[in-house]
Amino acid sequence: MHKIDIELVEMTLDVMKYVIGRVSATEHQIGKPKRSEELKTTVGETVTAKGVGGEYAFNLWKQHLASANVPVDHPRNLAFVPASPTKAAIMFDLITSASSIHGAYWMEGAGGIFCENEAMEWIVSLTGLPEGAFGVFTSGGTAANLSALVTAREHWRENPEFKREKGLIITSIGAHSSIKAMAKVADVDIVLVDSEEHLTGDALQETIATLTEHQRKCLFAVVATGGTTNAGIIDDLESIARVCEDQNLWFHVDAAYGGGALVADSVRHLFNGIEKADSITIDPHKWMFSPYDCGAVIYKDMELAKNAHSQQGSYLEIFKDEGAHGFNPTDYQIQLTRRVRGLPLWFSLATHGTDRYKEAVERGLELAQIAGRLIEAHPDLELVREPSLSCVLYRRIGWEPEDYTHWTYENHEKGFALVTPTKWKNGDTYETCSRFCFINPDTTEKDIVMILESME
Ligand SMILES: *Cc1c(COP(=O)(O)O)cnc(C)c1O
Questions:
Q1: Which PANTHER family does this UniProt record tie to the protein (predicted)?
Q2: Which of 365, 369, 400, 380 is nearest to 455 (CA)?
Q3: pLDDT tens digit sequence for 237-293
Q4: Is position 416 within any domain?
Q5: How many domains would you assign to the chain?
Q6: Domain of 434?
Q7: Which of 62, 270, 334, 348 is the most exposed place for a label (fewest CB within 10 A)?
Q8: How far, in Å, CA of 398 to CA of 433, rounded?
């Protein structure tokens, strides 16, 4: 028998108490950042030769550091794409940490990877991709987009004619910043269709027609967005898929934010055509109520991803031997060692059932419609465009850009709400406006009313 380490038991109880308090609190502090110098002055030296002790460090966290974060699950945090992990998922995130699973190869992570795959099967079923399609959990949408882009490019380069060419992709200005950033990482050129409204096959075709002969030769993929981050706009996936099929282009759908809405019957038809994608990005840490971080990349043909990403090394051969009887997540995306970050999602899905996910996503969509009606009924407010998915862009009549900034800071300073301004491209000009993005099903109509009232 091991001697029970009293200090360890106490620390474990303290941590559990804190976690229970955090997940069961009905009203959280919204928190705000502080300058690094200020935090340093407050907490002093913490990493020392002898250590300051767990209890002391934990108290520093509770008293001074936790409140310097802005939790994304606050019901009045409607900025960027917020999140709202389920308590079940948070609890199993702790289990994931405690279990020390190296999630790269089945040989070491069979139990965890099995659970991940159960959750993945459900996600893939939402897309309508054909038999054989599957996916793998990544650190987020950025890593998923990069993994898909590299798979597409490597597949294209299998043709000797393109072996030494730098590839080119087309997307729209509504695409997420990570597409441009990852094109840089993959050393791929990018052409942007200059409209933030939904991309269509015709607009894509017109853009292709403007390419030089060499550009056309190097064009290998199109990235459509299944719910733009700024406005929730879903590109016309059906017509884009047709162009890609005709022109032999890889069709990637970035649904990092919008992908959760595939479960919602009220909007599922807007995604028609997604079942023709070669690859899809969906972030469970956005609208599938998983804790950070958890993204997913899905492929129609898993073999192509394996050709692009499978790592070779003498120290790895053993994994591919006995472990090869199972699924090796490392083979399909950019990471080797990986957390089994789909495990919390699996536990939450198993706990609640997929119907609860449907209801929670529908609630986010409904909140956007409610906000739209409240804005239309308000004499000083106007919608910039109709709510799309759970995004609402609206203006306060008479406000200049600095008024929005000031209002955001003021509400944040008070610990009341975090609602940030954005820009919307209207013809040749960009208008600054306010933006809601709803994820948390616990946000209430009253929350929205209070936020709108604060604009008077
Ligand atoms: C959030 C988002 C991303 C980036 O995902 P991360 O998880 O932040 O890396 C990519 N694409 C879209 C459409 C997004 O909304």
A1: GROUP II PYRIDOXAL-5-PHOSPHATE DECARBOXYLASE, MIP05841P
A2: 380
A3: 999 999 999 999 999 999 999 999 999 999 999 999 999 999 999 999 999 999 999
A4: yes
A5: 3
A6: 354-453
A7: 62
A8: 11
**CA distance to 92, 99, 220, per residue, from 107 (Å):** 22, 15, 35
CATH number at residue 426: 3.90.1150.170
Model pLDDT for residues 60-85, shown as the tens digit of each residue: 999 999 999 998 999 999 999 999 99
Local structure of 210: helix, strand or coil: coil
User: Residue 335 C-alpha to ligand 1 middle, in angstroms?
Assistant: 17
Residues 243 and 315 in one domain: yes
Give me the percent of the chain exceeding a pLDDT of 90.
89
> Which residue has a Cα nearest atom 5 of ligand 1?
141
Helix (H, G, I), strand (E, B) or coil at 257: coil
Q: Could you please report the per-residue DSSP string of 374-421?
A: HHHHSTTEEESS--BTTEEEEEETT--HHHHHHHHHHHHHTTS-B--E
Is the pLDDT reported for residue 319 higher than 90?
no
Which amino acid residue places its CA nearest to atom 6 of ligand 1? Answer: 141
Q: How far is the CA of 167 from the centre of ligand 1 (A)?
A: 22
Q: Are 161 and 167 in contact (CB under 8 A)?
A: no
Which atom of ligand 1 is closest in space to residue 145's alpha carbon? Answer: 10
Nearest to 420 by CA among 391, 381, 377: 391
Q: Band of the pLDDT at 435, cuts 50, 70, 90?
A: very high
Q: Residue 176 C-alpha to ligand 1 middle, in angstroms?
A: 6
Task: Measure 142 CA to ligand 1 centroid, in angstroms.
Answer: 6
On average, the pLDDT of the chain sits at 95
Global pTM reads 0.96
CA 254 / ligand 1 centre spacing (Å): 8
Does the residue 71 lie in any domain? Answer: no
Tell me the C-alpha distance between 339 and 324, whole Å: 19
Do 340 and 381 belong together in one domain? Answer: no
Q: Which residues does ligand 1 sit against, CB inside 6 Å?
A: 81, 140-142, 145, 176, 178, 225, 229, 254, 256-257, 283, 295
Question: Which residues have C-beta within 8 Å of that of residue 342, sequence separation ≥ 6?
Answer: 115, 116, 117, 119, 120, 137, 284, 294, 296
Residue 4 pLDDT: 73
Q: pLDDT tens for residues 24-56?
A: 887 777 888 999 999 999 999 999 999 999 999
Question: Candidates 81, 145, 146, 178: which one to mutate for ligand 1, based on the most atoms within 8 Å of Cβ?
Answer: 178
Average pLDDT of the residues in 351-356? 98
Confidence band of 353 (pLDDT split at 50, 70, 90): very high
